[in-house]
Amino acid sequence: MMNKLDQLDKFTIGIVTALAVYACSLIAFAYDPAQSEIDKKQEVAAKHHVASPELLSKIDLAKNLLIQDNLDKSEALVETLIQQYPYEGALYMLKGDILMRHQKPIDAMYEYKEAISLNPDFLDKKTKSFQGKKIKNTVEEAMLVIESGLQKDPTDNSLKDAREIVYFMKRKLAGSCG
């Protein structure tokens, strides 16, 4: 069969063969089973995010302070923890709870938005950390405040922006598992 091929055919077959050998060598040398195991462990850890015991005890302390109506101390502790752990969604959820106690549903809604962007499990009914009903009630309460504020001053841009966040949150809640 090689006798019936012209020079261009032979050259093309040679190039394709060389590229196939090169691709196989790249795959063989690039695959590192040890690195693959590390990646798998990191992926599992990310899916099952577990905060440090120290952080969990501080969160529990802040929750207890909130339950005891010691809002100032709870808020100060949560603010400090947010500075230390800015990617912990539970802290933003707790800050939203504090703001709801201060009767600030719009501000609480912003904190809940941050919490669910960091940890979508807050909207998944199948998880222990589900907070969907509380978030939904807060969004509805924020919408009432926004609508009444816009009736008084239809040009208030901050309320218009907050209304956009309400719509965003409603879409998130509608698309959640709760």
Would you write up a description of this structure?
With 178 residues, the protein is mainly alpha-helical. The chain folds into 2 domains: 7-47; 53-175, Alpha Horseshoe (Serine Threonine Protein Phosphatase 5, Tetratricopeptide repeat), CATH 1.25.40. It has 8 helices and no strands. The chain has helices spanning 7-30, 33-47, 53-67, 71-84, 89-101, 105-118, 132-152, 157-175. α5 (89-101) packs antiparallel against α6 and α6 crosses α8 (157-175). The termini are far apart.
List the helices and strands and how they pair.
Layout: H1 7-30, H2 33-47, H3 53-67, H4 71-84, H5 89-101, H6 105-118, H7 132-152, H8 157-175
Helix pairs in contact: 3-4, 3-5, 4-5, 5-6, 6-7, 6-8, 7-8
Number of strands: 0
Q: Considering DSSP H and I runs of 4 or more, what fraction of the residues is helical?
A: over 70%
Report the CATH topology name of the largest domain: Serine Threonine Protein Phosphatase 5, Tetratricopeptide repeat
Mass-distribution shape = elongated
Biggest sheet descriptor: none
The name of the CATH superfamily of the largest domain reads Tetratricopeptide repeat domain
CATH level 1 class label of the largest domain = Mainly Alpha
How many structurally independent domains? 2
- The protein's oligomeric status is single chain
Low-confidence stretches: none
Given the helix and strand composition, which structural class is it?
mainly alpha
Measured by DSSP, the beta-strand proportion falls in under 5%
Radius of gyration: 27 Å
